[in-house]
Amino acid sequence: MAKDMTLFWGFGSPPCWRTMIALEEKNFQGYNQKLLSFDKGEHKSKEVMDINPRGQLPTFKHGDKILNESYAACMYLESQFKSQGTQLIPESAAEQALMYQRMFEILTFQQKLYDVVYYEYYVPEGERLDSALKRNKEALTAELQLWENYLQKMETGSYLAGKKFTMADVVGFPVVAYAFHHGLSEERYPKLTEYYNLVKERPSMKATWPKDWQENPQGTDKLKDL
Amino acid sequence: MAQDMTLHWSSGSPPCWRVLIALEEKNLKGYNQKLLSMEKGEHKGKETLDINPRGQVPAFKHGNNVVNESIAACLYLESQFKSSGNKLIPDSAQEQALTYQRALEALNLQQRLADLAQYTMRVPEAERHDSAVKRNREALAAELQIWEGYLQKGGPYLAGKNFSMADVVFFPLIAIILRFGLSQEKHPSLTRYYNQVKDRPSVKATWPPHWVNNPPGMDMLKDL
């Protein structure tokens, strides 16, 4: 099964991390994987483009089934291998609704994070403005407070969608982890910190922890004033 | 069932239209619904904020289950009402993979469209650059070429022979893009797809009311 899977991935990518977490949670180890360098443009190489004409990472296939979008890979793996590993989509309507809702809200959180942390990557030098970055930081701050609030309203030790670890955490934890990696204040966001400390101990997280962070745990301080 | 559901929506908004289509496809009729004018800021009214604190549409709930994100709502409805109406997520691994892949890929198109169509709304006047608008136009054009390619090679629906969740997510985007004047001659496969899907009962039943008998007010994409 895992032998029929191939993942091309790179450092600095929450979506890559997601797909790797999902594979671990569903007990797929030993899949074919290749670490590529964005800086060297390896995400635009022929072997990636043959599977993913967008030239993006993650690029993932299972046999002849291509699932490059990280959420698509997560949902496919859960659906096809429901009884294997962790059950990532809850059964009850109420739990499921919250799970899907948070799962897709994470995309908003991710975009606002990128708008700050990857500002220089996305915006050409001639177009960069302090006022724009300031606005992006304000938007991210509001988003962070929303998530802090969500967690505050739940019992201690809760995951994003309730008492159990679900797909919302598979897709969401990398975004939270990246926020802390870029200097988010633990004092100002105690609930997000609690969540981060809870989930980072999970075997699937430890197995897939970004190797580039192990060498350089400090990251940046782009978010320290938020 | 549907009586326990409430949807706040706006005419022509692709995320809203997705949920409307999904409800029809799953035979869920008679839900409580409220048509709001985004122009008048009605999506920031108390009733909507009570469901969606983000002050956005769609705002959707089923009993106490709130699912505002459009794809989330569609997936929830498919999962909860699997045996009702049409199956939107195929069982076979091959079709399922392609359904999930295209459904999520559609968000790239949504982003490229928003970057261009909402540029003046999102970017204060003093910060706008012609170079940014040009970049956004080129990105949208390139994105549309990708979809033209998918429909040229495959079809008639995004995941193959059958209408699926991928079409529920994607169709409202292509419909609004064509309404904004995209050249049908330059995008024959996308046009063929549009003409095929627009006659589907769920799509006809939920066609944006202010589009009916109203010619498009803008043609910003005609030269793309």
Automatic annotation (TrEMBL), chain A:
GST C-terminal domain mapped to chain residues: 92-218
One GO molecular-function entry: maleylacetoacetate isomerase activity
Pfam families (alphabetical): GST_C_3 (PF14497), GST_N (PF02798)
CDD domains named among the record's database cross-references: GST_C_family (cd00299), GST_N_family (cd00570)
GO biological process, any: L-phenylalanine catabolic process
Example of a GO cellular component annotation carried by this entry: mitochondrion
Domain GST N-terminal: 3-85
PANTHER family, alphabetized: MALEYLACETOACETATE ISOMERASE (PTHR42673)
Protein name in UniProt: Glutathione S-transferase A-like
From TrEMBL, chain B:
Taxonomic source organism: Chanos chanos
GO cellular component terms given for this protein: mitochondrion
Coiled-coil stretches: none
Residue intervals of the GST C-terminal domain: 92-224
Gene Ontology biological process terms, A to Z: glutathione metabolic process; L-phenylalanine catabolic process
GO MF annotation terms: glutathione transferase activity; maleylacetoacetate isomerase activity
Protein name: Glutathione S-transferase A
Transmembrane segment boundaries: none
Signal sequence range: none
Gene3D superfamilies: 1.20.1050.10, Glutaredoxin
Domain GST N-terminal: 3-85
Pfam family, one: GST_C
